[in-house]
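Lab notes, practical 5.
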Amino acid sequence: MARVKKKKRSNLIVILIIEILIIILLFAGLKVYKTMNKIQHNDDYDSSIQLNPEVEIGGYRNIAIFGVDSRENDLDKSTHSDTIIVASIDNKTKDVKLASIYRDTYVNIPGEGYNKINAAYFKGGYSLALSTINTNFDLDVKEYVTVNFEAVVKVVDLVGGITLDIQENELKYLNGYVRSLNKINGTNVPGLKSAGTQTVNGTQATAYARIRYTKGGDFKRAERQRIVVARIFDKVKSSDLSTINDIIDEIFPKVQTNLTNAELLSLAKDVFSYNIVDQVGFPFEPDAHTYNKVSYVFPINLQENVTKLHEFLFSEVGYLPSPTVQEYSTYVEGIREQ
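Output from the prediction step:
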C-alpha cells in the first residue's frame, strides 16, 4: 500500500519536469557537445512510427513530450507516460503552442486495441506512443523527449522561483501537498500563509501543480500545470548563463530523445524568438466516467475534437479528419454512451 501511495504522489510531479524540458531543449546550444551527450539518444524504433496516410502538415515542427514515473530513471518502455504534451512550433513565427493530452483518454493503440493513451508507452515505448497520437488525432509527430520526475523542485529553485496567483480555494490543498513533498524529499519548506499573487519556490510550485480537488478536478490541474510552464519559460529566458548551465546539468542526464545533438542545436539557435502563445488540454470536450469498472476520459465526438485540435495547433479551419479518425470516433462514441 505504501508503494502505491508513493507512486501516486510521484506521478503528479512528472508534469513540471516535462514542461521545463521544453525550455531546456531550447537552450541546448548554450552547452558544448560534451554536456549534451549526457542525454540518452534513441533512434531504434523511428521506422515503425505510424501516421495516417492522408495527413500532411507543413510549416510546423511537432514534438511529443512524455513524462514517466520511474525512480530508477528507466525512460524506455514498461513504464506509463503519465504526462503527454504535444509542443507545436510555427517555423515562421517561432510561436509555440502546447496541447496536453489527458493520460486516461480512451484511444485505439495500434496492434493492441482500445485502452488509456498512457498505456501505449508502457506497451511499446515512444514508437507506439507516437503512433497512437498520430493515428488517433491525425498528427505527424515523429520527434519526442522523455524525462522522469526527478529534480523538479531543484530546477524551479534554480530559476529563483516563479510567480503564481494562488486562489483561496487552492491554498489549503497546496499547503497539504507541500507537507507531503517535505516527507518525500526530507525537506522543511514552509507552506504559503495567504492566497494571492506571489513568488513560490520549487516545492510550492510542484504542490500547486498537484492540486486536483477543486472544481474541475484533473482538468483544472492540467490547466495549472500549463500555467507553470509559461512562468518557468519566462524566468529561464531571462536567466544568466551560469543558471542555465546548472539547470542543464540537472536535467540532461534524465532525458531520452530521438533528436540528435544537431537537431537540438537547430532548436536552440532561435531560443530568444520562441514564445508560448497558447496552451490547452485535450480532448477539448471530455467525458470522464467508468467503463467496465475502469475510469477513462472519453472525447465527446472524437472527430470534432480533432478538427478543433488542428485549428488550435495549425490555424486550420474546417479540417476534415481522416477515415481512420472517423472510424475511431464512431466506435468511441458508442462505448461512451454505454
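Observations recorded by the TA: Residues 77 and 126 are 7 Å apart (CA to CA). DSSP finds twelve helices and 13 strands in the chain.
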